[in-house]
Amino acid sequence: MIRRRKVWIAVAAGAAAAVLLIFLVHHWRPHWSVIQGAVIRSDSDPRKRQPIADAEVTAGYGSSTLGTHSDASGYFQIRIPGTVLPGQTVTLSFQHAGYAPLQLPVTLRLSSSLRELLVTALSPIPESQGSEPIRRTAVSNIRVRYTVNSEHQENVGSEAKTFDVFNQ
């Protein structure tokens, strides 16, 4: 009787594990459904590596293409609908006026990639020497007016004599 009970418990545990495994496989979605990062200006001087606003970011995988633009801080985020399995490659394209376009293949991994920010540096296109020269205007004799708000009290009154006025 005890042996029969152990067999039934083992069969029930195996069936529960099989149902749980089928449920997890059927509803499993990889956590890597978001690609996020920043677009900055490429420069050897770290102080000149400024974010690039409104850069066009396009992600292509398989026959699908998704796109977005970076915000004022250079941040972009692309949410990939559907299932993208680890090991697949997504090609990111970055474009902005005045910068050389860049294509970057990204191989997706499991949840470790979700915590990573993809920082991409775009190289500025050098100005051609044969273009029209830039006209510069010198500005001189500039006056700046400003006010300062302060909260200190100053006595501006003087001695005054009170008087009464009668209406007739």
What's the short version?
Helices cover 15% and strands 26% of the residues. By secondary structure, the chain is an alpha+beta fold.
Structural account:
It contains one helix and seven strands; from the N terminus they run αβββββββ. A four-stranded antiparallel beta sheet has the order 3-2-5-6, with no helix packed on it. A three-stranded mixed beta sheet has the order 4-1-7, with no helix packed on it. The protein has 168 residues and is of the alpha+beta class. It is flat. The chain has two domains: 1-29; 31-122, Immunoglobulin-like. Helices cover 15% and strands 26% of the residues. It starts with a helix and ends in a 46-residue tail after the last strand.
Which structural traits does this protein have?
single chain, 168 residues, alpha+beta, Immunoglobulin-like, 2 domains, four-stranded antiparallel β-sheet, 1 helix, 26% strand
